[in-house]
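[09:14] KT: can someone run the structure on this one? pasting the chain below
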Amino acid sequence: MYKKIVNISFIFLFMLMCILPLAFSNLVPETVSEMEKRKLRNVAKLVKEDGTINTEVFDNFSGWIDDNIGLRTNAVAMNARIQFYGFERFANNSNLGLGSKGEISQIPEDELLEYQHLNLKTEEELEEIARAFQIISDYLKEQDIQYYYVQCYDKFSFYPEQMPLHINQYGDMSKTDQVAKVLKEKTDIQFIDLKDKLMEMKEEYQIFSRFGDPGHWTQRGGYLGYKAIMDEINRCNSERFLVLDEEDYEINLTDQGSDLFGGIHLEDFLEEFIIREKQAEPTSEKLGSPNISNPDGFFNNDVSAQFFTNETVDNRTRVLVLADSYFHMFILDDLSESFHEMVYVHADSTMDFPILIEYYQPDIVIHENAQRADRYDLIVEMAKLISTGS
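[09:31] RB: done, structure tokens below
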């Protein structure tokens, strides 16, 4: 009798396990999985929209079951947690890596090559890059425009100890280090090397998050970068521009840790910087010379372009910022407090540099690139355009 009850109970539980997922299957079309950041496949249809028979209906049904079977989200989350906490790996083939103490790092192929020093430039390539930067600087100097090149470095350059232990480095100089060295030795451009500026502050401040966004500095790191840039600009000018001090911000500790696949959250309490009395105003108006029309709708093509005016400063300085996410996510608002007018255009628009100069007619150009964003070839090509005047 006992054996019979056990068998019946087993059969009941087995049937329940088969029925429950089907009973709770998702039937809503165009459903987007927030956890996986993708659209789930819709219910398979026997007849296509054109009235023909769908010969792939069984494959489509199998795909729909894979995506929409009931309790799937719970199972995916459970698997992700087991993989992460049990085996210290990601269940979704993420391009993230874990350090020896669980720190989060980015390890896509291009960043791995940079970290491992396997993408070094030849001496000829470095000479060409140096010439290109000098051409750009001289071109602007002829128009009485100041040029500052800012090199941002990624997390692995500041915290190699937080990279996965199985990834080895070769030598002690990266490609970006090579370029920085040749720019310092063979050009007279105003070069702001933020690795040199911030490395000495690494022990005192958290430049990059341990468990938060591994692709950008912390807000504290951004503030230190902003200060270094403005200090260099002021060093080169008799007229000193306003630089925000810590007292100009409301600084709070907030949880800025990572949200990982599978509903995993890693806490990381970091400083949040909020300007207390912001004076610069963002505007949709295209700031530029009244005598030159917006060329080919340029600014309309760059959805990331941002414009600022500030009537409270005691200067009429116009600044063009050609940069990437290190700037537009962290320090644009800070920079805009120092100048009368400022426009930001993404650094991927490097080839349009001469057009931007003609249209905007800035007094200062701040040109930045992230370490992982190898735009040196674009810079070389742009310098050739300047040299030929085409």
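[09:33] KT: thanks! The longest strand covers residues 146-152.
[09:34] RB: yep, looked fine to me
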